[in-house]
Amino acid sequence: MVSAFLCVFAVLAILIAGNATDHLMGVHALLFFSAIVAWLVGIALWAGKLGDRDPFDETEYEDTLVKFGVAASMFWSLAGLLVGVIIACQLTWPNLFYFEELGWTNFGRLRPLHTSAVIFAFGGNVLLATSFHVVQRTTRARLFGGMWPWFVFWGYQLFIVLAATGYLMGITQSKEYAEPEWYADLWLTIVWVAYLIIFLGTLWKRKEPHIYVANWFYLSFIVTIAMLHIVNNLSLPVSLGSAKSYQLFAGVQDALTQWWYGHNAVGFFLTTGFLAIMYYYIPKRVDRPVYSYRLSIVHFWSLIFIYIWAGPHHLHYTALPQWAQTLGMTFSIMLWMPSWGGMINGVMTLSGAWDKLRTDPVVRMMVVSLAFYGMATFEGPLMSVRAVNSLSHYTEWGIGHVHSGALGWVGFISFGALYCLTQWLYKRKSLYSIALVEWHFWLATIGIVFYIVALWFAGIMEGLMWRAYNDFGFLEYSFVETVEAKHISYIIRTVGGLLYLSGALIMSYNLIRTALGHERINQPTDANPVSQPPAAAELQPAE
C-alpha cells in the first residue's frame, strides 16, 4: 500500500519536473523524485531480507522506528544549532561573515533554515519519536498501520529536506514559521494526516482502558497543528509547474491569520507536545507518580482553551482592531495560571525523590527545563501587555524571550527524553558517561544564561534608544547607533550559542557510545539510581 502510494507521487514528480516553468521547481521535483526512488529501493531491499519473519508482529512494540527518531533528532539538533551560531556570527561580525558571491549563505536565507531546523526538524523528530514510544507503552499496543508509521517518519524527513533546500535556493512564501511553498505544504499535510490516523488507531486498539494524560497532550498537538497548517497556508499556485504561490488572505486578515498560526505553533507544537514528554518521562525517570493527576487534567483543558486566543498580542499598535488586540492580551495574561499549574505539577512529581536532582543529571536537566518553562510563561504574558509591548516589540528582548523558552524549556526536556530513550531502548544499565551529562548540563545552562541576559540588556536598551527624543523633538539616536550599541551583547550571545552547541555535541557522543554498548571505566556507583522500565520489545503491562 505504501509502495503504491509512493509510486503515484514519483510519477507526479517526474511530470512536474518535465513541465516546470521555473528552474527551482524543476530542481525540487527531481529531488523529490530521487528521494521517492531511493525510498522504494530501500523498501525492496528490506522486504527481500525478511524471509518468514513478520515485520509487524502485534506482540512486539515498534521500537526500531523510535530509535531512528532519536538518531534523526540528534542529527537535526546539531545542524540547527550550528546554523544558529553561524547567523549569530553574521550579526556580530558582518564584515567577516558576509559573502556577496554566495547568496545562499546570506542571513535572509540562513535564518529561516535555523528556525525550521531547530523547531520542525529537531523538535518535530523528538515529538515523533517520543509520541510513538509513549503511546505504545501507555496503551500496551503496537503502533497502528503496519508500514505507515515509517511513511510518516521518512515523509517528514523529506519535507524537512524540501524546506531546507528551498530556503537556500530562495524559495519561500515569507511567512514566519511557515516559509515552505505550496507543494511542500501539501506533502506535509498528507504526512500529518497519516500521523493523526496512526495515533488515533493506536489509541483505538489499546489494551489499557485509561488514556494517559500525555496522550491527550500529544493528540491536541497533532490535531491543532493540522488545523493551523491548513488554514494559514491556503494559497493558489501560479501553476503546477511553478514554485510560486499567492496567499488567499491579504492585509490585516493575513496578519491575523499568520499570528493566530504563529503563536499557536508555539503553543501547540512547542508547548503541549513537550508537556506530554514532561508528563511521561519525568515520572518514569524518578519512579514516582504524577504529583496530581487531577491537576494534569485541569492543566490540559484550560491550556488548550486559552492558548488558541492569544495570537493577536503579536499585533499591538497595528491596523488590527483594538478589541482584537485586547482580546489577545487578556487571554495571554490568563495563560499564566494553567502554565504555572503544569510547571508546579511537574516539579512536585519529585516529591520523595528530591535526591535524584543530585545523583541524576538527566532528572536535573528535565526539572530545570520546567524552571525555564515557568519563566518563559511568565515573561510571555508580561510582554503581551500593551504598555510593555510598546517597549519590547521588535527588539532583541523578543529574541531573548523566544530562546529562553526554546533552549531552556524545549531543548532541555528534549535532551532529557533522548537520554532516557537511548538508555531504555538499547537496554543499557546506564548511559555511557554520567560525567558527560554533567558537562552537557552546565555548558548548556551557562550558554542559555549568557544568551538571554545579553539580549534582555540589548532589547531594553534598544527600545529605550528608539523612543528617546532630543530637545528639538527629533529622535536622539539613528538606527545605526542602536545597532552599534548592541555589539557587546551580540558577542556574548554568540558565546552562549557556542556553549549550547558544545553541550549538544557532547550529548551526541554520549548517546552514540551508549547505543553501541560501550561502558565507561570508573563510572560512579550512584550514577544511575533510576527506574528501569521493561526494556524488552514484547508488550508489557502499561508503563
Description:
This protein is mainly alpha-helical and 543 residues long. It folds into two domains: 65-248, Cytochrome C Oxidase, Chain A (Up-down Bundle); 277-519, Cytochrome C Oxidase, Chain A (Up-down Bundle). Helix content is 71%, strand content 1%. It is built from 18 helices and two strands. It has helices at residues 2-18, 23-48, 63-92, 94-97, 107-139, 148-169, 182-204, 213-232, 251-286, 293-307, 322-348, 356-359, 361-384, 386-392, 396-425, 434-466, 479-485, 487-515; strands at residues 235-237, 245-247. The protein has a two-stranded antiparallel ribbon with strand order 1-2. A hairpin with a 7-residue loop joins strand 1 (235-237) and strand 2. The relative contact order is 0.09. Residues 525-531 have low confidence and may be disordered. This is cytochrome-c oxidase. It is found in: Cell membrane. InterPro entries: Cyt_c_oxase-like_su1_dom, Cyt_c_oxase-like_su1_sf, Cyt_C_Oxase_1, Cyt_c_Oxase_su1_BS, Cyt_c_oxidase_cbb3_su1. Pathway: Energy metabolism; oxidative phosphorylation. Heme b 2; high-spin binds at residue 401.
